[in-house]
Amino acid sequence: xxxxxxxxxxxxxxxxxxxxxxxxxxxxxxxxxxxxxxxxxxxxxxxxxxxxxxxxxxxxxxxxxxxxxxxxxxxxxxxxxxxxxxxxxxxxxxxxxxxxxxxxxxxxxxxxxxxxxxxxxxxxxxxxxxxxxxxxxxxxxxxxxxxxxxxxxxxxxxxxxxxxxxxxxxxxxxxxxxxxxxxxxxxxxxxxxxxxxxxxxxxxxxxxxxxxxxxxxxxxxxxxxxxxxxxxxxxxxxxxxxxxxxxxxxxxxxxxxxxxxxxxxxxxxxxxxxxxxxxxxxxxxxxxxxxxxxxxxxxxxxxxxxxxxxxxxxxxxxxxxxxxxxxxxxxxxxxxxxxxxxxxxxxxxxxxxxxxxxxxxxx
Length: 363
Ligand code: SF4
Ligand code: SF4
Known about the structure:
The protein is α+β, with helices and mostly antiparallel strands. The chain has helices spanning about 15-20, 35-45, 50-60, 65-75, 85-100, 135-140, 225-230, 255-260, 305, 315-320, 335-340; strands at about 105-110, 120-125, 160-165, 210-215, 235-240, 245, 265-270, 285, 295-300, 325-330, 345, 360. Helices cover about 25% and strands about 15% of the residues. The strands form 5 sheets. Strands 10-2-12-11 form a 4-stranded mixed β-sheet. A hairpin with a 5-residue loop joins β5 (about 235-240) and β6 (about 245). It is globular and about 75 Å long. Mean pLDDT is about 85; it is low at about 1-35. One iron/sulfur cluster (SF4) binds near residues 220 and 226.
């Protein structure tokens, strides 16, 4: 569930039923098991709830902040159902745990939605130069997993590279060019904005490339989010100020949301996230960029740790060409409202009726 080493007596490969109960005589913190909520629920079927509650009480009194937090988290409510006192307790517990784990003072913000705010995003599709600074700023700000092994690297933003082109009558019956497999009939294959074949791994010497155009995508913070509809444990939901969030502690990693999202916006932590201590951003939000665990899904949340305090998301701040805009859709004077009023605006896959609050525009 975390980056902490698994105790020798309880290797990760073992079944939860074998390793979730700490020995009665040992220091419970020392033998803290490494479990996910899914493992824990399975184990709950084998141990009585009173046994588990008793163990949790013992663990939460432990001096080991990591073990205490992990056990307490198994028993905490879904974030939406917590009282203010329970939120404060969870926050204090996590701040203690992360500070110990990362060797620096970590804060976990719990600021909620502000009245009269509906967050919205706009991106000037003509301006983007495909430099991907937004991708890297997002990774650094939001404590995403780095690493080189399969499943370790997580990036919430993808910048799709597409060829420029246009449809012309003369190309209409050319078919696929030679050498590219089966001829499937007449079409305008030669570059005509091949949206479905957009690449996000590209390594040019310089950007923008002459024959390319770029389209950044991430979570669209849908007003009618399919990911929320399918989540069986209600761990993902829309906040009152717009962003769709995930209560990481309740995610069971079933990946239903990943299948339902039409925008390829969600990522699962297949391994324990790789987050070097020195690179960890200590300014976190409970529903935002706090460190995640193995087996949970995550995605963009419009930098709640920043935007709920009047700051721009990291990607907006870093974009060298000012392609990215962010603001309050309920404020007619905000930059994003003015863009919606005056520019040519479109939403991705509008026909799906997901009503993204992420708008693309061009002058
Ligand atoms: S930082 Fe701006 S210009 Fe660079 S890829 Fe991102 S949106 Fe495009
Ligand atoms: S873009 Fe995907 S993950 Fe984001 S709110 Fe919409 S359906 Fe959910």
